[in-house]
């Protein structure tokens, strides 16, 4: 039996009633299991994780995207996370009994459905990208919701599905297939966003840093801190502890302390065990020693 994971990100992290409406289509659906949903008020965003039979997951997520397009108005959206749509990004991750090519095909099926039924412009990204420049989500989302009108005037940014104009309230959506990643944020005890930006630039791959780290700065004004927000795109090659130590080291250059960190959404157990083994200095340790 094929199993796929899907992690749609919705641009609502404050209004619990709206969040529940968006998540409801993912509950109690045969062949679909809602694993987790985590809202962040500062980001004004909720990250949802579902798993199950590919076609059942696709249909349930399609319904959730439809609800999001009805209850979220991007014209009024404010948050610390980059975004350009009500359902901002929707990746499929092959888990069992399916290839990356199968996940790509699934993402294209959903993209066509969303474009036709909801009149939302759809950009395929990561493994599903139809052009090399669309592989990177940050490039696809550059300009965010506020810059969509101008972006869609450029023939180079014609959507893969749907209209060539943004949805008046739901914006646009990026749909694709990718490997598992870890969304990881590290807290800095400074409100200075320039420091967080410099640290993020140092460690991310696009600026000459670690191959499997994508990073950026985020302000968290309610806590008077900033964050280095990261996607670890291959935790087996760039581990959580390596990212953590790299940020700590760079923070010292600016007289700033790391005060904590957070994982958003689900995380492979192997990645956490690897980090524990590193900090405990375990010798001759392997995963088969874990109960």
Layout of helices and strands, plus pairs?
Layout lengths: L2 E4 L2 E2 L5 H8 L8 E9 L4 E8 L1 H18 L15 E10 L3 H19 L3 E5 L10 H4 L7 H4 L21 E5 L4 E7 L4 H11 L9 E8 L4 E8 L7 H13 L5 E7 L4 H12 L11
Parallel strand pairs: 5-7, 6-7
Antiparallel strand pairs: 1-4, 1-5, 2-4, 2-5, 3-4, 8-10, 8-11, 9-10
Pathway: Amino-acid degradation; L-histidine degradation into L-glutamate; L-glutamate from N-formimidoyl-L-glutamate (transferase route): step 1/1
Keywords: Cytoplasm, Folate-binding, Histidine metabolism, Transferase
Pfam family, one: FTCD_N
Give a structural overview.
It holds the Pfam family FTCD. It is found in: Cytoplasm. Its main location: cytoplasm. Residues 180-291 form the Formiminotransferase C-terminal subdomain domain. The protein is of the alpha+beta class and 291 residues long. The protein contains eight helices and eleven strands. Strands 1, 2, 3, 4, 5, 6 and 7 form a seven-stranded mixed β-sheet that branches. A four-stranded antiparallel β-sheet has the order 9-10-8-11, with helices on one face. Strand 9 and strand 10 (225-232) form a beta hairpin. The two termini are 26 Å apart.
């Amino acid at each position: 039996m094929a199993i796929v994971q899907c992690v749609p990100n919705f641009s609502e992290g404050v209004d619990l009633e709206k969040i529940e409406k968006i998540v409801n289509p993912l509950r109690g659906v045969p062949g679909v299991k809602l694993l987790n949903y985590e809202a962040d008020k500062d980001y004004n965003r909720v990250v949802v994780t579902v798993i199950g039979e590919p076609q059942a997951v696709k249909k349930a997520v399609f319904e959730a995207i439809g609800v999001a397009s009805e209850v979220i108005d991007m014209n009024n959206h404010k948050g610390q996370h980059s975004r350009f749509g009500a359902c901002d990004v929707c990746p499929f991750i092959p888990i069992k009994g399916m290839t990356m090519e199968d996940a790509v095909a699934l993402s294209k099926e959903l993209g066509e459905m969303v474009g036709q039924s909801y009149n939302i412009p759809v950009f395929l990204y990561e493994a599903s990208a139809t052009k090399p420049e669309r592989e990177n989500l940050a490039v696809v989302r550059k300009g965010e919701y506020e810059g969509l009108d101008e972006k869609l005037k450029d023939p180079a940014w014609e959507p893969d599905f749907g209209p060539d104009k943004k949805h008046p309230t739901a914006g646009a959506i990026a749909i694709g297939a990718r490997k598992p990643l870890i969304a990881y944020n590290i807290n800095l005890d400074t409100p200075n966003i320039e420091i967080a930006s410099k640290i993020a630039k140092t460690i991310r791959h696009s600026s000459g840093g670690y191959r499997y780290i994508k990073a950026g700065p985020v302000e968290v004004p309610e806590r008077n801190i900033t964050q280095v927000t990261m996607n670890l795109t291959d935790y087996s090659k760039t581990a959580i502890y390596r990212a953590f130590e790299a940020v700590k080291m760079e923070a010292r250059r600016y007289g700033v302390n790391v005060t904590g960190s957070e994982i958003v959404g689900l995380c492979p157990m192997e990645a956490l065990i690897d980090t524990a083994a590193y900090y405990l200095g375990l010798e001759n340790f392997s995963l088969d020693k874990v109960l």
